[in-house]
Amino acid sequence: MPAMLESLDTLEADALAALSAASDAPALESWRIEYLGGKGRMKSAAAGLKDVSKEEKPAAGKRLNEVKQAIEAAFKARQSEVGKGGGGGGANSAGPAIDLTEPGIAPELGRRHVISRVTEELCDVFGRMGFEVVTGPELEDDQHNFVKLNIPAEHPAREPIDNFYVDDPLKTDVPRMLRSQTSTVQIRTMESRKPPLRIISPGRVYRPDTVDATHSFMFHQLEGLYVDRKVSMVDLKTTLYSFARSFFGPDAEIQLVPSYFPFTEPSAEFYMKIRLRPDEPAKWVELGGCGMVDPAVFEAVGYDPEEWTGFAFGFGIERIAMGKYSIPDIRMLFENDVRFLKQL
Ligand code: DAH
Description:
single chain, 344 residues, alpha+beta, BirA Bifunctional Protein, domain 2, 2 domains, two-stranded antiparallel sheet, 12 helices, binds 3,4-dihydroxyphenylalanine
């Protein structure tokens, strides 16, 4: 047998024998240095390869790799044995190296953010009433955010100072903007589908409001739209009432207060009696707006207002979450203080 192969056999046998004799961590470390270290025996064997004749080189190289893999694997196996205290009669045989009766360290588990969970619950509740979830883009244009929702050019809601325009509204035909309401999705859905429809659409909206306990420049809304023949205000109220009771419980109270929105006629604000602070009684809080879809909106999307009727609503999801969990300040939902989020 060529000399190189012979010395590799010896190296392997020596290494394995020395390894089974190593019975604690320091012994394993000196073994590692001697055999696998930067100046160890495996390294010098590899360096010897350059002196081997050309014909013998492939076999020697192959064997060198085998030996290296074999002793590395044996080292890992031995390491875990020794670690577990299975020292096989060595220094650790007196008992296990770790005390399994010690209380463990519980891993910190993450959880979904309360806004995501409330959104999901809202979709479930409306899903059971037959509403399908659709989504729309956050980067919108003023056609979908205003024009087709019957909000005229001079309407104060369109002021550049009250919106995040991406294009200059004075210099662009169809300026892009971050949507200020999810009502945009009513338009997008009606443009792409034929009635009847029953959809809800959760998502982020943006308004340059000064941040305080009840305002944020970004928040979430849930939009709803129901289009069919002979839909009435009674259908709207029944739907909102069923939602309130499924989401907040059988004692939930709601109120519709007459109001004005350009895209609904008649329009109402939707109030619920909820508790925003754990230490205060429940109060009437406005959760959003609703109403019967204005015929001008149907015309803008090519639906015949003589044939089709519908209701729509839009709520603030933060308000709903704050009511459900008695959260007094909207900023708590975005600061991501884990001590707060953990309680929900
Ligand atoms: N988009 C309105 C807002 O952000 C809320 C709203 C009111 C939505 C009435 C509707 C509606 O669908 O019918 O203030």
